[in-house]
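2024-03-11 09:14:02 INFO receiving multi-entity request
2024-03-11 09:14:02 INFO entity count = two
2024-03-11 09:14:03 INFO echoing inputs for audit
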Amino acid sequence: MIEPGLYNYWIFVVLMMIGFFIVISRGNLIKKIVGLNIFQTSVFLLYISFGKVEGATAPILDPRYTEYSNPLPHVLILTAIVVGVATSALGLALVVRIREAYGTVEEDEILRQDEAP
Amino acid sequence: MIAAHLPALQVVLPLLAAPLCVLLRRPVAAWALALAVSWAALAIAVALLVQVLDSGVVSYHLGGWPPPWGIEYRIDLVNAFVLLIVAAIGAVVLPFARASVAAEIPAERAYLFYALYLLCLCGLLGITITGDAFNVFVFLEISSLSSYVLISLGRDRRALTAAFQYLIMGTIGATFYLIGIGLLYAMTGTLNMADLAERIPAVSDTRTVHAAFAFILVGIGLKAAVFPLHLWLPNAYCYAPSVVTAFLAATATKVSVYVLLRILFTLFGADFAFADLEIVTLLLPLAVFGMLMASTVAIFQTNVKRLLAYSSVAQIGYMVLGISLATTTGTTAGIVHLFNHAMIKGALFLALGCVFLRLDSVELDDMAGLAKRMPWTMAAFVAAGFSLIGLPSTTGFISKFVLVQAVIEDGRWYLALIILLSSLLALIYVWRVVEVAYFREPAAKAGTGATEVSEAPLAMLLPTWLLVLANYYFGLDTSVTLGVAGRAAASLLGAAPLGAAP
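2024-03-11 09:21:47 INFO inference complete, emitting structure
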């Protein structure tokens, strides 16, 4: 039985494994980048989940509230999102260059072309 | 005034100079700026090491926010030493870079090369200097993203696929590290390394901390190319431009090994990693397999760059072997080999860069009879190759001597035999290159062999020989390297939370 409080963490694990599996199993370079994105996004969910304090509000100062969620994971994940965007952009740029050089984005096709003299 | 801000300048200077390189556009101007900045970074690294040797740990609070709230740059002997390695290689490679970059990278992209080089340098220095676990991730990604682009600048189209493969593996490694740090933060509520070291023992029996340890170990192992996580390395080194190979081979994996040291000894502490989890039963066989397998694979390579890349995987095995013993001598061997191997591989890859400039190839067959045409280059290769094998009076000998001492001290004498065997394998693959270059007649076909080429320019030979001579200088006078490495190892194993804050 899944405890309700751990729901987010289960989703994190499932998403992480899905993303990781796509990266490993797919031969299409674009799909690999998609998998990598799912993999990275799952980690964002992990951080945001443990930043949440039950019964607390968003970390914006207001006299009506006394309890706030932890804002530090949010800040860390902002940085990680920037890193993720940069990685995806660079990965896709490389895919464009690979497509120009090989005429394909399929990994096995690229390997075959490299093996042929 | 400036002296107080040296730790920040160490990282900020290359970071700010990188966009300036893009604005300058002209290759010569960008090169001159990068050269000035890299030598300034070296001067700062030397000043910091002197400061640490004189007065102990330097703690710098970024933006004036005291730790554990703000980001702290914390420099003790270990990272001061690694900073010096990275900055020194960064500074020595740049004078070499100008001719090599002009030959291998289109002129209209050369300024981008220098900008990325500085960013990569900034990232590597940042990983080393910071005392904040999340900051390590940020700098890791700065250095990784720039190195993916640097590798993809190679002229062979396989450089693109090598860069892509490295991007996938590197990102997985960095994300694993991020998951591990997240789990640690969830358990301890801090990201400061010294703070983490204090709070982890209280929760070290939980599964969360064990999972965090595993995630971080695998993530950093991927970046450090610890066998069997090294699959990205041979292609990346093989198809990258010569300068990039020399720079990355001498610095990037070394910095990751340093992070491994920090994680094992400072963050989790030797008691947790080695006594409770017995990590030695995992690391030691991997290190030994890595040494033997990668050396054997290296023997059968026909591309000399790829040959040396496999040799790098084997050499990382030596470092991990030293570290995995968790004794002072073993860790000293690991740290001193970090420094020595950076000089050995730096010199070898720079010599190969000279070969590539003239021959346009580093295939073994094309190098036949090359020693007659490029005597200085090949002499540098052979001299650095001796150091790689570990002949007496070279730095490679010092590393292996200390390592053998460490394994015998630990009662694992059979490992000494394996180290000897692995050195013999190194002798074989270095000898293959020597045999072809010195004793084989040049190929008969015009334009393909070594018949028409001349010696590499002085600007490229000087940095190469500087590193080669450093190999012999530090092989004869070990007081600096062994002395610092020994004290660094003692501080890692002794006072695990790095002494008191000043």
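2024-03-11 09:21:48 INFO post-check: Residues 328-359 of chain B form the longest helix (32 residues).
2024-03-11 09:21:48 INFO post-check: Residues 96 and 458 of chain B are 9 Å apart (CA to CA).
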